[in-house]
Amino acid sequence: MAKYLLVSFKTCPWVQRAAIVLREKQTDFEFRHIDPDNRPDWFLAISPHKKVPVLRIDDRDSLFESNAIAEYLDETIAPRLHPENPLERAMNRAWTDYVPTFAEATTATAYAGSEADYHKAAQRIPGPFERLERALEKQGDGPFFNGAKYSLVDAAYAPFLQRYVFLDRVKPLGHIEKFPRLAAWSRALMARPSTHSFPESEFEAMYRENLRRRKSWVSQFVEASRAAAE
């Protein structure tokens, strides 16, 4: 059995994707978190792009880029999460390639520095939500992207749907409710133990602290939303 070290910042969604795949495959790994503002020399020595994620294999080889890591793990550790049918597998890969577009709208909204930029970014969210809703309508009854079987597509979108949920709790956006399939998929992924690298409440607190640290416009609503929840 190979030895795996996954290097991350605590709240990086791209690393979370790799961790989800490892957990789905019930594979032991060491999860090591580093400070993004003080990246240690040992990390710089093993990370070709000086970024996370990095998956270190047997303390010898370094894999980088979350998509490449997920594909490698799926090819080398059972059970396979990709579909066996080549066309279905290619379609799944196409939808994982769409993840950055999907993620950008929510990320831009979360970290917008002004009210105008916040609303401008939030107005872009329904576009990718609509595309995923249409894709999910073709995929059967769920609860996952391919229906009953969990896949690499689920692992890829889970971190970003999680962040949408967290952002929506700070200041309701009112988007996902309009897309029932996407909302159901999001609930299924949030309920999946593999999604969570930390207890959900702990990780949500980290997410909110990131909003404050980056002085995003929406961070002003963090305390009010916490008080309402209590």
If you had to describe this structure to a student in words, what would you say it looks like?
The protein has 230 residues and is of the alpha+beta class. The chain folds into two domains: 4-76, 3-Layer(aba) Sandwich (Glutaredoxin); 86-229, Glutathione S-transferase Yfyf (Class Pi), Chain A, domain 2 (Up-down Bundle), CATH 1.20.1050. It has eleven helices and four strands, in the order βαβαββααααααααα. The protein has a four-stranded mixed sheet with strand order 2-1-3-4, covered by helices on one side. β3 and β4 (61-64) form a beta hairpin. The termini are far apart.
Q: Rg from C-alpha positions? A: 18 Å
Task: Provide the domain count.
Answer: 2
CATH topology of the largest domain: Glutathione S-transferase Yfyf (Class Pi), Chain A, domain 2
The CATH architecture of the largest domain can be given as Up-down Bundle
Task: Describe how the helices and strands are arranged.
Elements: E1 4-8, H1 13-24, E2 30-33, H2 41-46, E3 54-57, E4 61-64, H3 66-76, H4 86-97, H5 99-110, H6 115-122, H7 126-137, H8 152-170, H9 180-191, H10 200-213, H11 222-229
Parallel strand pairs: 1-2
Antiparallel strand pairs: 1-3, 3-4
Helix pairs in contact: 1-3, 1-8, 4-8, 5-6, 5-8
